[in-house]
Automatic annotation (TrEMBL):
Record-linked Gene3D superfamilies: Translation elongation factor EF1B, gamma chain, conserved domain
Superkingdom as given in the UniProt entry: Eukaryota
Pfam families: EF1G
Source organism (scientific name): Aspergillus niger
Name of the protein described by the UniProt record: EF-1-gamma C-terminal domain-containing protein
SMART domains xrefs: EF1G (SM01183)
Entries under SUPFAM superfamilies matching the protein: eEF1-gamma domain
Family recorded in the similarity comment: Belongs to the GST superfamily.
Annotated ranges, domain EF-1-gamma C-terminal: 1-157
InterPro entries the record matches: EF-GSTs (IPR050802), EF1B_G_C (IPR001662), EF1B_G_C_sf (IPR036433)
Keyword hit for Protein biosynthesis: yes
Length: 157
C-alpha cells in the first residue's frame, strides 16, 4: 500500500455508522478520530440531475455506482441520496476517501465521470455541516433556493 498504514480505522468508523445513532453518537466519534492527513472528504454529486425522472430510478443509479466501486471498498466510505420527488430530484452525497486524491478510488467505476467531485474542508463550518447532513439524511438540501426533501439513498461501506 503506497499510502502506508492508517491510524484511522475505517472499519471501526463503518461499524459506528452502522450500529449507532448518526448524529448523537456516530458523528461525534468520527470527528474525534478523523485524521485529515490520512483521509479526505469529498462532495460527490450527480452532474445530470436535469435528466433524472423517477426517484426510484435515480436511487438505482446510486446503487449501480456503488456496486461498481467494489474494488475500492477498503479505501472508501460514503452516503449518497436522492432528494426531491419524481421528475424533480437530485443526487448528492459525501465520501470519505483514503489519501488526498479521489480519482484513484473512484475511477474503478466506469460511470465515475458522471459525478462532480469537490474536496471538502472539515474545518470549514459549511463543509462540516454538509458532511453531517449528507451522512445523517435528516434534513433537506437546498439548491438554487429550492428545497428538496430526502427521498432515498445508499450507504457505501
Amino acid at each position: 500500500e503506497a499510502l502506508g498504514r492508517s491510524e484511522f480505522v475505517l472499519d471501526e468508523w463503518k461499524r459506528q455508522y452502522s450500529n449507532e445513532d448518526t448524529r448523537p453518537v456516530a458523528l461525534p466519534w468520527f470527528w474525534q478520530n478523523y485524521k485529515p492527513e490520512e483521509y479526505s472528504l469529498w462532495s460527490v454529486n450527480y452532474k445530470y440531475n436535469n435528466e433524472l425522472k423517477l426517484t426510484f430510478m435515480a436511487n438505482n443509479l446510486i446503487g449501480g455506482f456503488h456496486a461498481r466501486l467494489e474494488a475500492s471498498r477498503k479505501y472508501l466510505f460514503g452516503a449518497q441520496a436522492v432528494y426531491g420527488a419524481n421528475y424533480d430530484c437530485v443526487i448528492q452525497g459525501v465520501f470519505l476517501v483514503r489519501g488526498q486524491d479521489s480519482q484513484p478510488a473512484f475511477e474503478v467505476g466506469p460511470d465515475w465521470e458522471s459525478y462532480e467531485f469537490r474536496k471538502l474542508d472539515h474545518t470549514n463550518p459549511e463543509d462540516r455541516k454538509l458532511i453531517e447532513d449528507q451522512w445523517a439524511w435528516d434534513v433537506p438540501v437546498v439548491i438554487d433556493g429550492k428545497e428538496y426533501p430526502f427521498a432515498d439513498g445508499h450507504v457505501f461501506k
